[in-house]
Amino acid sequence: MKTFKIASIPGDGIGPEVMAEAHKLLERISELDPEVSFEIDTFPWGCEYYLEKGEMMPENGLEILAGYDAILLGAIGFPGVPDHVSLHGLLLKIRKGFDQYIGFRPIKLLPGAPRVLVGKGPEDIDMIFIRENTEGEYAGVGGRMYEGTPRELALQTGVFTRAGIERVQRYAFELARSTGRPLTSITKSNALNYSMVLWDEIFTELVKEYPEVETNSLLVDAAAMFMVRSPERFGVLVASNLFADILTDLGAALQGGLGFAAGANINPEGKHPSMFEPIHGSAPDIAGKGISNPIASLWTAKLMLDHLGLTNWGERVLAAISKVVSEGQVATPDMGGKATTSEVGEAVRNAL
Ligand code: NAD
Ligand code: IPM
Ligand code: MN
């Protein structure tokens, strides 16, 4: 019997609602499989914690989390705490602190999920974003001066290192090679004449190392257009922190909405725990109503199972999600139904 230690940070807004379903899913798996169990410790970190303690998580938060096999996160951010405070105080601190330099975000339209593109189905919308997750536009380097005066200024510096670019692009090349998919590099070197030129140069170097991978390079604005016009052209995409942030919300829309989109923040070397979180945020507009879609969170748990080596269970979870979505009987309002968060969670567990 193998026991996995999971740190759970439900966070804010709909985070705790969707996380409850992820926990119940893991419990169900341990009931079904005598070889596997999960020891889940829940941490009450987030915006409420901040309002009480003045920090999003304890100062030794990373030390606490370091002892776990994986971290599950719901969502962070809520009106009352400025977003840059809440996100830099927790989410981005963990991604950077644990060197989770791969943002792994699959975009896959399941049969039965809401469609926004005319004439495009599940066979057309199936791609994986590899997001640079620790530097770039999110480096947090910069400053403000002369605040509150007419001279006030703000500097936000993108930090792009050769090592940082090469490791994320190499990961994407390896993934493209092992899955036999084409690889697209997302750039903007026509305008960003330093950072994205370096990005392109490194991509060109790696193209030579991986002659068997079909590659191309697209400017980010054109990539957004092609994701809508011809999503079938994409297999694996590699992009900087900000570009992939934006394009994966677009991708989420293509797969039925933010309620479907899963993500992982991976430290491939396993030196630190990886963190698994849906792409969506805390959805303050629907929080507390019990109608948030838990599928993104359950799919995120699937990514965690894969990462922990439980790929058989990962596959079964996705099959259970697919069954519930394709039957369409139990669906939250964003999926066109009337079911609650927990009813969808229960339907997926029963489909297991
Ligand atoms: P959001 O993703 O929270 O919501 C955007 C829209 O999608 C809303 O209409 C919301 O109701 C809907 N939506 C999102 N998830 C859903 C789900 N599971 N089921 C049904 N509908 C869903 O984005 P936002 O409104 O721009 O941001 C809200 C807060 O979340 C902000 O504080 C933001 O900084 C934060 N945020 C956090 C994360 C994270 O923790 N990973 C990610 C994105 C945004
Ligand atoms: C995401 C979110 C975060 C990001 C925010 C909340 C900092 O939008 O995970 O996509 O930009 O990475
Ligand atoms: Mn985002």
Write a brief structural summary:
By secondary structure, the chain is α/β, with parallel strands linked by helices. It has helices spanning 15-32, 47-53, 61-66, 83-97, 162-179, 195-209, 220-229, 241-254, 295-307, 311-327, 341-351; strands spanning 2-11, 36-42, 70-75, 102-108, 126-132, 136-145, 153-159, 183-187, 215-219, 236-239, 264-266, 274-276.
Describe the secondary structure blueprint for this structure.
Elements: E1 2-11, H1 15-32, E2 36-42, H2 47-53, H3 61-66, E3 70-75, H4 83-97, E4 102-108, E5 126-132, E6 136-145, E7 153-159, H5 162-179, E8 183-187, H6 195-209, E9 215-219, H7 220-229, E10 236-239, H8 241-254, E11 264-266, E12 274-276, H9 295-307, H10 311-327, H11 341-351
Parallel strand pairs: 1-2, 1-3, 3-12, 5-10, 8-9, 8-10
Antiparallel strand pairs: 4-5, 4-11, 6-7, 11-12
The protein binds nicotinamide-adenine-dinucleotide, 3-isopropylmalic acid and manganese (II) ion.
3-isopropylmalic acid (IPM) is lined by residues 77, 87, 91, 245, 279, 281.
